[in-house]
């Protein structure tokens, strides 16, 4: 068996064109803000990609880059500026932030109506109770990628590997809601006998940040696998899924080129939806 590749890059290109057409009809251009603290090359590259996406879609960019020496008060001041800015429709704080700065405090300080990443506690709470709110971009991108390939989650056994705030926990909530209707298991570092869970799964989302952890022996033939993990190694960036999995799975979202571009596309989609609500 050779797995179908779930091409997030090509799918994101289609979505961006759809968004470009919507933006062209709006009376006022949306504005996406980013706050980046420090000099992490990966974060700088990722933020740069987001602003490149904005240019393609017709969204204005508002970029605030702070040095590694910035204090928590400096970051909170930048957040206040974007909360009050009429040009900023929505914005994100690029994570991780340097040591000594509370990521939770920063996220709590965002205006929930401008929370483009869907990580404010109020918006995560709305996700729990099923109220409409900006959704976390990676979980939303995973569901959108599956949907664009007509891969249903209804009635499926889904294993989410990893319980992080940005992927694992919100994704499990989305998958178990009405409309997605999956039966979800979250595995983590204290899970006993991980393979007993992954082996029965119809869909596996690997988001643990452990290079090539998920091997072909750990999945059942025909499973759908989405690779979200990233590990920096001497050989470059590696995902959580071993290449041999593609010989057993029916479909796979690789890293890179799978979920990553969808995350960026969903960020744009969140901002456009925010702009549409502005009267």
Output mean pLDDT: 95
CATH overall fold name of the largest domain: Rossmann fold
Using the alpha-carbon principal axes, give the shape: globular
Helical amount among residues, as a percent range? 25-40%
The number of helical runs is 9
Q: Any key phrases for this structure?
A:
11 strands, Rossmann fold, alpha/beta, three-stranded parallel β-sheet, single chain, 2 domains, 279 residues, 38% helix, 9 helices
Task: Report on the architecture of this protein.
- The protein has 279 residues and is of the alpha/beta class.
- The protein folds into 2 domains: 27-111, Rossmann fold (3-Layer(aba) Sandwich), CATH 3.40.50; 137-260, 3-Layer(aba) Sandwich (Rossmann fold).
- 38% of the residues lie in helices and 17% in strands.
- It has 9 helices and 11 strands.
- It has helices spanning 8-23, 41-57, 72-84, 103-109, 121-129, 137-148, 168-176, 194-198, 259-277, and strands at residues 4-5, 31-37, 60-66, 90-93, 157-161, 183-187, 203-206, 224-227, 231-233, 236-238, 251-253.
- A 6-stranded parallel beta sheet has the order 1-11-8-7-5-6.
- A hairpin with a 2-residue loop joins β9 (231-233) and β10.
- α6 packs across α7 (168-176).
- The termini are far apart.
- GO terms for molecular function: methenyltetrahydrofolate cyclohydrolase activity; methylenetetrahydrofolate dehydrogenase (NADP+) activity.
- Residues 6-117 form the Tetrahydrofolate dehydrogenase/cyclohydrolase catalytic domain.
- Keywords: Hydrolase, Multifunctional enzyme, NADP, One-carbon metabolism, Oxidoreductase.
- InterPro entries: Aminoacid_DH-like_N_sf (IPR046346), NAD(P)-bd_dom_sf (IPR036291), THF_DH/CycHdrlase (IPR000672), THF_DH/CycHdrlase_cat_dom (IPR020630), THF_DH/CycHdrlase_NAD-bd_dom (IPR020631).
- Homodimer.
């Amino acid at each position: 068996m050779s797995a179908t590749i779930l091409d997030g890059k090509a799918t994101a290109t289609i979505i961006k064109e759809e968004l470009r057409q919507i933006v062209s009809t709006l009376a006022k251009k949306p504005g996406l803000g980013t706050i980046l603290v420090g000099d992490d090359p990966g974060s700088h590259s990722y933020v740069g990609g987001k602003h490149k996406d904005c240019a393609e879609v017709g969204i204005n960019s508002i970029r605030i880059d702070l040095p590694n020496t910035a204090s928590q008060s400096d970051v909170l001041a930048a957040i206040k500026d974007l909360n009050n800015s009429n040009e900023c429709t929505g914005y994100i704080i690029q994570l991780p932030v340097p040591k000594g700065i509370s990521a939770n405090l920063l996220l709590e300080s965002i205006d929930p109506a401008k929370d483009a990443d869907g990580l404010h506690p109020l918006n995560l709470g709305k996700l729990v109770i099923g109220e409409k709110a900006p959704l976390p971009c990676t979980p939303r991108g995973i569901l959108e990628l599956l949907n664009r390939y007509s891969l249903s989650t209804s009635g499926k056994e889904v294993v989410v590997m990893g319980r992080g705030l940005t992927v694992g926990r919100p994704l499990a909530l989305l998958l178990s809601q009405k409309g997605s209707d999956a039966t979800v298991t979250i595995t983590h570092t204290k899970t006993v006998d991980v393979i007993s869970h992954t082996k029965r799964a119809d869909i596996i989302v690997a988001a643990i940040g452990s290079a090539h952890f998920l091997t072909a022996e750990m999945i059942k033939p025909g499973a759908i696998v989405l690779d979200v993990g990233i590990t920096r190694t001497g050989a470059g960036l590696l995902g959580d899924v071993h290449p041999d999995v593609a010989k057993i799975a029916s479909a796979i979202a690789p890293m890179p080129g799978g979920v990553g571009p969808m995350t960026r596309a969903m960020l744009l989609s969140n901002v456009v939806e925010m702009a549409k609500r502005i009267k």
